[in-house]
Specification:
Layout: H1 4-12, H2 37-52, H3 57-69, H4 73-86, H5 92-103, H6 107-120, H7 125-137, H8 141-154, H9 159-171, H10 175-188, H11 193-205, H12 209-221, H13 232-238, H14 244-256, H15 260-273, H16 278-290, H17 294-307, H18 312-324, H19 328-341, H20 346-358, H21 362-375, H22 380-392, H23 396-403, H24 414-427, H25 431-447, H26 451-470
Helix pairs in contact: 1-2, 2-3, 3-4, 4-5, 5-6, 5-7, 6-7, 7-8, 7-9, 8-9, 9-10, 9-11, 10-11, 11-12, 14-15, 15-16, 16-17, 16-18, 17-18, 18-19, 19-20, 20-21, 21-22, 22-23, 23-24, 24-25, 25-26
Length: 471
């Protein structure tokens, strides 16, 4: 790319030429020398093409896409403005412009751009959802609500729609409606951090403090969790990301979607750009472990500790890999190392506790389960296993207290946790509580088709009912 900045500067004068007597938005001047090569090179290529043909909407729009892909939103905005002015009928440039204006918190302008995009591409769901959001952020609640209510009818499985409506109802003090929609948003996307936070506030305002605490804890676990819509236009931009951190981010997103081979490939691409990106090595330990390629996972563990031996996550991920390989003693040592580096690492405390429990060191396991719970009070697995130890030691009320913390969230683990709570009550002589939770566990296991667990519950329930009737 030697010599190109001078060429770009000369060509920039052409970018402001009027079309049919109407002035066009100018292409931006780019600070190319301030960016790392992996970012600079693709942007410089697109910039040169746009400046060489400044009246070509596709070239100007492509520059905006590359800039957006690398989070240069203000510069992208100018490029999309020009592309849209050159070819308003295309539609995508107005959509990209609207998205960019949302990121820049220019909500009124974003609303106008997104309306224009929808005139060209009617019914495009991501544009409709973003328009409703823009109207809400611009303070135009009534317009936003009307659009969200249309979307609830046409796209009822879209979590963001229920979140938006929940926010509006909460702002108006309509707490029952707010809770209804926010609960639906959380059900559709359980790791929706913002929805859990909004729901916690709504429950608090209704005086339901326990539910508020529950959803605040879920928010704390995944503050940045946000649902994604299928968005082919945005995908065209995302595919342009080329920096190491962009590839890493893409790999993480793919992993969250369960697309593990693609996630591993994106991480490897990130390392191709920057071999010293330690987080990519750390993540690949886990990814290759999940893909059943322990040799590759171990290679990345060695690379990670060579770059930085003091990252707790490196040793934790390696401990998980070793556990799956049946190398229990080595796994325990890896978890111990993670704890030494980060004592508040709840997952490492929990896994180390499990290794101690299975080797017979129940007191040591109790200490580390308690440490996991101290760092993460809603840690279900730690509560469950600590409860098992306490039952074994005859400390039944303490066990009941811990099993009681395992009943949420409602998922495939809930029947087993409810069964454990019922059994602890039965051992403590709390027959009514034992019967209630045993029947609840039976109902939940039956609904989920958990036949083996259901058979165990049925056997114990029948015995408990016989004992109760005989008294």
């Amino acid at each position: 790319m030697a010599g190109i900045p001078g060429l770009l500067l000369a060509l920039a004068l052409l970018a402001v030429a009027p079309i049919q007597g109407q002035p066009l938005p100018a292409l931006p001047e780019l600070p190319l020398d301030t960016w790392e090569p992996a970012v600079r090179e693709p942007i410089a290529r697109a910039y040169a093409e746009a400046l060489a043909r400044p009246d070509d909407a596709a070239r100007c729009g492509s520059l905006g896409m590359v800039l957006y892909a690398h989070e240069q939103y203000e510069l992208a905005e100018a490029s999309f403005e020009r592309a849209h002015a050159l070819d308003a009928g295309e539609g995508r440039w107005a959509y990209y412009l609207g998205r960019t204006e949302v990121y820049l918190a220019r909500y009124d302008r974003a609303s106008a751009s997104l309306r224009e995009a929808l005139r060209r591409r009617p019914g495009y769901l991501p544009a409709r959802v973003m328009l409703a959001q823009s109207l809400l952020e611009a303070g135009r609640q009534d317009e936003s609500q009307a659009l969200y209510e249309e979307l609830v009818e046409t796209s009822p499985e879209t979590a963001e729609v229920h979140y938006g409506l929940g926010r509006i109802h909460a702002a108006r003090g309509e707490l029952d409606l707010a809770v209804e929609h926010l609960r639906r948003a959380c059900a559709l996307f359980p790791s929706f951090g913002a929805a859990h936070f909004a729901l916690a506030r709504a429950y608090r305002n209704r005086g339901e403090k326990e539910k508020a605490r529950e959803h605040l804890a879920l928010y704390q676990n995944d503050k940045l969790g946000w649902p994604t819509l299928a968005d082919p236009l945005l995908h065209d931009i995302v595919s342009l990301r080329t920096s190491a951190t962009d590839q890493l981010r893409r790999g993480i997103e793919l992993a969250e979607k369960g697309e593990l081979p693609e996630a591993a490939a994106a991480h490897e691409e990130a390392l191709g750009v920057d071999p010293t990106l330690v987080q990519a090595h750390v993540n690949l330990i886990r990814l290759y472990g999940q893909l059943g390629q322990p040799g590759k996972a171990e290679e990345h563990y060695r690379s990670a500790i060579a770059l930085d031996p003091n990252l707790a996550e490196t040793h934790y991920n390696f401990g998980v890999l070793l556990t799956e390989e049946g190398r229990s003693a080595e796994a325990a040592a890896a978890f111990r190392k993670a704890i030494d580096l980060k004592p508040t690492y709840a997952e490492a405390q929990n896994n180390y506790a499990y290794s101690l429990m299975t080797s017979g060191d129940l007191e040591g396991a109790k200490r580390h389960y308690a440490a996991a719970i101290e760092s993460r009070p809603d840690f279900r697995a730690a509560h469950f296993n600590l409860g098992r130890i306490l039952v074994n030691q005859g400390k039944l009320q303490e066990a009941i207290d811990h099993f009681g913390q395992t009943l949420t969230p409602e998922d495939e683990e809930t029947p087993r946790c409810t069964y454990a709570l019922a059994a602890a009550h039965a051992r403590a002589g709390h027959r009514e509580e034992a019967l209630r939770y045993m029947r609840e566990a039976r109902e939940k296991a039956q609904a989920l088709g958990q036949s083996e667990l259901l058979a165990s519950i049925e056997k114990d329930l029948q015995a408990l009912e016989r004992t109760t009737s005989a008294r």
